[in-house]
Design brief:
Length: about 60
């Protein structure tokens, strides 16, 4: 299964509380932080909700 590198690039200030909670659920603590998650439907849904605040890249070369 592929992995996604998600980087938080824009502050959540001024956006709905549910979007701030989604950022927290993705594992973010500070701006410009990157996290890696498995490419699943639930993660894709969370990314879609905050797509204007994050940058998504596919991890290449991950063999397990």
């Amino acid at each position: 299964m592929s992995k996604l590198r998600i980087t938080w690039i824009k502050s959540g200030i001024g956006y709905e509380e549910s979007q701030k909670r989604t950022l927290s659920s993705l594992g973010f603590h500070r701006l410009n932080q990157s996290v890696v998650h498995e490419d699943t439907n639930s993660v894709r849904g969370m990314i879609n909700k905050v797509r204007h605040l994050v940058k998504v890249e596919e991890e290449i070369g991950q063999t397990e």
